[in-house]
Amino acid sequence: MLANWHEMIKTRDINMLPKILADNVVLHSPIIHRPVEGKKMVGMYLTAALHTFANKAFTYDREFLCENGAVLEFSTEIDGIFVNGIDMITWNDSGEIIDFKVMVRPLKAINLINERMTALLEQYKAQQQV
């Protein structure tokens, strides 16, 4: 499962998301106060996150693995602001992601990410209503 996630990050192929997310997946974002639920909504948020985070500077620096999950520490730079965080990923027996939690630091990075992701999500929502 983790290999699929890394492949998607490497290729930036968001079309892989529906294949690796479980129908009942839950996303815990550092920006949103309540969990995001379901493949469609989580896919939309992860797409916005990938467009915000996964630039040329993005790297996973360390991995901590267990039987059905992983904690991936990442770093990147966005508009000159250093971003450090973790992705906590849990998957089911079929290898589909069922829980995805993101934590980010420092506060300046969270504010920038919130601004960028909010704008992208508004675009996605507007496109779906057309």
TrEMBL record:
Domain SnoaL-like positions: 4-97
Superkingdom of the source species: Bacteria
Residues in coiled coil: none
SUPFAM superfamilies named among the record's database cross-references: NTF2-like
Protein name according to UniProt: Nuclear transport factor 2 family protein
